[in-house]
Amino acid sequence: MGKSSKDKRDAYYRLAKEQGWRARSAFKLLQLDEEFNLFENVTRVVDLCAAPGSWSQVLSRVLIKGESFGRCAWQDREAKFRQNMLKVIPSDAAGDSDEVTKPNKPVNEGPRQDVKIVSIDLQPISPLPGIITLRADITHPATVPLLLKALNPDYDPETMNQQAQHPVDLVISDGAPDVTGLHDLDIYVQSQLLFAALNLALCVLKPGGKFVAKIFRGRNVDLLYAQLKVFFEKVYVAKPRSSRASSVEAFIVCINFQPPEGFKASLEEPLGVGGRLPQMQAEQQEATTAQDDAPNDDGIVDMEIEDLTPSNPQDQKSIRWVAPFVACGDLSAFDSDASYRLPDDHVSLDPVQPPTAPPYKRAIELRRANGGAYGKVPIASK
Ligand code: SAM
Prior knowledge:
The structure is a single chain. The chain is of the alpha/beta class. It has one domain: Vaccinia Virus protein VP39 (Rossmann fold, 3-Layer(aba) Sandwich), CATH 3.40.50. 34% of the residues lie in helices and 16% in strands. The protein contains 13 helices and 10 strands. It is globular and about 60 Å long. Bound molecules: S-adenosylmethionine (SAM). It catalyses: cytidine(32)/guanosine(34) in tRNA + 2 S-adenosyl-L-methionine = 2'-O-methylcytidine(32)/2'-O-methylguanosine(34) in tRNA + 2 S-adenosyl-L-homocysteine + 2 H(+).
């Protein structure tokens, strides 16, 4: 698909390039923030699976530069952009004209010195103002001390108290594996990545902190919601308007971290994945009815429910729990599943930040070395 055709089919892709975002995902975070005020009273933030860096750009601009991206800023620019496009579609263009007269610039409350943001990915992230970037694997236990050291160079687990070891107000994760197209496998791998993000968040979040992560909604996702409810006062499942309705993608938004008494998070012994899996399954079988014992084909495995008993007796009985669903983003925003007509003089822009080390890079090199797609020697036999 050419750039221009993608511009037509994906308004957020085009808008991201217009507004200088490295990826269209920026709008997902902005729309989530619009609904949940994620950045309120936040000074220590961790962005997991952050490359190419559009979520980090949002953090940098809102928390460090002090720009305000409430409904005013990005949507006004969107309205202006849309009005521009609608010049060639006379039918309902007039309706948008009022919005365009609103101020077009983000409100700037001034730069902040007290904010620290660490962004982590397997891929290198090109530098961003005020962001500390780490190239690391979020599933690896060594990543937690690395991250805490980046937030506080004096970090020392031997001498620091528990409170100082949990300094983070907000952990966000947009983690996604390379999608294979095999639906069940993709959902399974995604759930493993989600548990890695959750385990890491449990290690660094301070009480009262927030956790936001991408999920693929599959069967038994209500088990995951119930597990999150053990740790957070409020758990929502949110679908920003910039996330395609046709996609199983959604975001869990967990507010007010309240670790159960005696709980000790660890990436050596993570919850939901790895070595504790059979043990947890056995415990789960004891703790639930035959109905709830149904095998979980999403890779979502219950934690030690009895050890992590929530204080609310109602919650103790229910292993499954349905999180409130919140559609976020203003209804006037672009529909991510719709195609929009472009003006005849539309110029398609290049992406703001091409991938630094995409997984397909090696394949392209091999293909080039082989004389193109129809080279004489098959790559596999090289
Ligand atoms: N939020 C990003 C943005 O706004 O630009 C986009 C994130 S992209 C959808 C998913 C990222 O997850 C990829 O860059 C990938 O390298 C990263 N990822 C996947 N597995 C990871 C892992 N185990 N550790 C760290 N990053 C990982």
